[in-house]
Amino acid sequence: MAEKPIILVIDDEEAMRDACSLILVKDGFRAETAENGKVGLEKARDLKPALALIDLKMPGLSGFEVLERIKNIDPGIIPIVITGYATVESAVEAMKKGAYDFLPKPFTPDELRIIIRRALERRKLALEAESLRHEKKVMEENFITMVSHQLRSPLVAIQQYFEVILAGMVGHVEDTQKDMILRARERLESLLHLINDWLDMARISRGQIVDKLKPIALEKLLDKQVEFMKPLAQESGVKLELRPMKKTALILADEQSLEQVFSNLISNAIKYNKPEGSVVITVREEDGTLVADVIDTGIGISREHLPLVFDQFYRVSRGEDQKTKGTGLGLAIAKKIVEAHNGSIQVASEPGQGSTFSVRLPKAEPEEK
Ligand code: ATP
Ligand code: MG
Questions:
Q1: Which DSSP category does 328 fall into?
Q2: pLDDT, tens digit, for every residue of 247-306?
Q3: pLDDT tens digit string along 94-126?
Q4: Is residue 202 helix, strand or coil?
């Protein structure tokens, strides 16, 4: 059986304490009493009551003082004040100091019951919310590990089985069977891609990035990404070019994370381009920041989609271009990374003409005058 909720009555009037106790015990609560604020606080500390009924006017510690201190003992205790002189001001004052409700003297047993019931309901909700918050935190901590082990590992295993079957190592595979396994493998690859992106998304936190900041030359990083993307560009018939500045400038960055940003921006610029199109990357200085623009001559993004492209899982639906694969997490990840660098990312686009994604990053050294 659940334990009876403890209700503590702090009042210097004995008749009041007795009357309240009587009603509370009759209603199935455990009633505890204290004749002054000091004893009340001690009992609150020892008994951890669910509710405390506090008389405002007492010799020694006043009800207001008890109200303030009881919060520090246990914020879960719901305080209700008993006001002998039911002025609006003292009630308001008490509510401001954290009282949940007030009971003007004299009150009937039913008035007491209503307030107690409401306060207990409130406490129940507060306790539930607290336990949910705690649960959520634990879940978040476990979730990343769970996804990578319980979700990703079996998929990788399935992928390996498919490879073995496709390689003909367990017997001859008919063309129709092969066709299906290839399709299954493709779906599996998309799923793994999604899980990896999602894990990236969940793992990126400002703290982690800030810890790894080092001065790096932005153009060197861009050059590396451009070289890396050349084969994809060639395959798609898109010209890819980096136009560096005259002098190199440094930024404070976590190299690996920024590589991921530009790898996605450049691959998008190629993926959503047109045959014979081009991708140009420029670097410029603006108000003590470095701005890298990834400019493409691709299909562009219409105005209604533009504000949404940085949202998680958002992909512009375009009838004719459903072929391009992706999870819609690339730009969300890029935004999160850039913002963790105290930078910003923006897009301007003209449908049918092309898009420009601009990444703004603070420079490493202060501007020399
Ligand atoms: P992922 O990068 O996760 O593999 P994705 O490329 O679909 O998938 P994002 O990089 O987040 O996802 O891009 C979101 C959407 O924005 C894309 O689906 C595409 O429709 C649109 N988009 C992004 N870059 C461009 C671009 N340079 N030109 C036109 N549309 C773009
Ligand atoms: Mg992308």
A1: S
A2: 888 999 999 899 999 999 999 999 999 989 999 999 999 988 999 999 999 999 999 999
A3: 999 999 999 998 899 999 999 999 999 999 999
A4: helix
Q: What confidence score (pLDDT) does residue 321 get?
A: 52
Q: How far is CA 307 from the centre of its chain?
A: 20
Q: Is 275 helix (H, G, I), strand (E, B) or coil?
A: coil
As a whole number of angstroms, the distance between CA 257 and CA 49 comes to 51
For residue 146, the CA-to-ligand 2 centroid distance in Å is 25
Ligand 1 pocket, CB under 6 A:
197, 264, 268-269, 272, 296, 298-301, 309, 314-316, 326-332, 355
Q: 126: which 2 tokens? A: 């507060």
**Which residue has the least CA distance to atom 27 on ligand 1?**
269
Give the position, in ligand 1's atom list, of the atom nearest the Cα of 299: 29
As given in the structure block, the two tokens for residue 232 are: 């994809």
Long-range contacts of 221-224 (CB under 8 A, 24+ apart): 221/253, 221/255, 221/258, 221/259, 221/262, 222/262, 222/281, 222/283, 222/292, 224/259
Q: Are 15 and 27 in contact (CB under 8 A)?
A: no
| Ligand 1: residue whose CA is nearest its atom 29 | 300
Mutate to test the pocket of ligand 1, among 268, 308, 321, 333 (most ligand atoms within 8 A of CB): 268
